Amino acid sequence: MSGDKHVLRAELRNEFRHRRRGLSESAQQTASQAVLNNLIETNLLDVRRIVAYLPNDGEVSLQPVIEYAWQQGIDVYLPVLHPFSPGNLLFCRFTPSSHMQPNRFGIPEPVIEVQDICPLASLDCIFTPLVAFDAHGNRMGMGGGFYDRTLAPIRRDGLNCQLIGVAHSCQQADLLPVQSWDIPLDKIVTEQQIYSL
Ligand SMILES: Nc1nc2c(c(=O)[nH]1)N(C=O)[C@@H](CNc1ccc(C(=O)N[C@@H](CCC(=O)O)C(=O)O)cc1)CN2
Ligand SMILES: Nc1ncnc2c1ncn2[C@@H]1O[C@H](COP(=O)(O)OP(=O)(O)OP(=O)(O)O)[C@@H](O)[C@H]1O
């Protein structure tokens, strides 16, 4: 990758992380409720198995989505840092009685139980956190490449799993610099609207 592009991505990442961290507690709460409403209205939660995430660094909280899913009998999974495949994620079942522990970034994740791991091919929908997105479905994350690596088989093997980015509307960029390994999103949901790509 050229040095310029690398610097540009780092600057963009700082700028957009700053934006989402600057939102008030009440703006955060309103956004997470609105995201749930937008998903219900568009039937995007009429599925059996979803991957959510627990919020970090100003991300939209999916707590209302998780509670709704539990009420509806939808199975909820969370990303867990892979214990021996660095840079990859596992998706582990999350219930109200899951044993949790913080990962090395301080984000709580379920303690891994083999029977709770869901293969990518069995998931209906993955809600991904993001730092910035654009109207083409390009996504920029925290810079670890965790989602890009883990989700690569969806496109490669043509798996039937929707990728939905979740963001505050202030995380929209005009045009993000794309990398060869970036996995584009199928949809993006914000507190204001749903983009379908
Ligand atoms: N909520 C949430 N969960 C997630 C992710 C995410 O972006 N958001 N991830 C998406 O990949 C994976 C974890 N990746 C992460 C990568 C960097 C940082 C982070 O906060 N980096 C800090 C440095 C922290 C440190 O080194 O101790 C930073 O860059 O300031 C957090 C999560 C899996 N779980
Ligand atoms: N499929 C892949 N195989 C191997 N390396 C990858 C893959 N995808 C990404 N990477 C590596 O991960 C690093 C970070 O990528 P990038 O900056 O695009 O992450 P990100 O999209 O911001 O993070 P994340 O996917 O965790 O949200 C890059 O240096 C890249 O080389």
TrEMBL record:
GO molecular function: 5-formyltetrahydrofolate cyclo-ligase activity
EC number: 6.3.3.2
Catalytic activity as recorded in UniProt: (6S)-5-formyl-5,6,7,8-tetrahydrofolate + ATP = (6R)-5,10-methenyltetrahydrofolate + ADP + phosphate
Pfam families per record: 5-FTHF_cyc-lig
Cofactor names: Mg(2+)
Key words of the record: ATP-binding, Ligase, Magnesium, Metal-binding, Nucleotide-binding
Record-linked InterPro entries: FTHF_cligase, FTHF_cligase-like_sf, NagB/RpiA_transferase-like
PANTHER family the record matches: 5-FORMYLTETRAHYDROFOLATE CYCLO-LIGASE, ATPASE INHIBITOR/5-FORMYLTETRAHYDROFOLATE CYCLO-LIGASE
Similarity annotation: Belongs to the 5-formyltetrahydrofolate cyclo-ligase family.
Protein name: 5-formyltetrahydrofolate cyclo-ligase
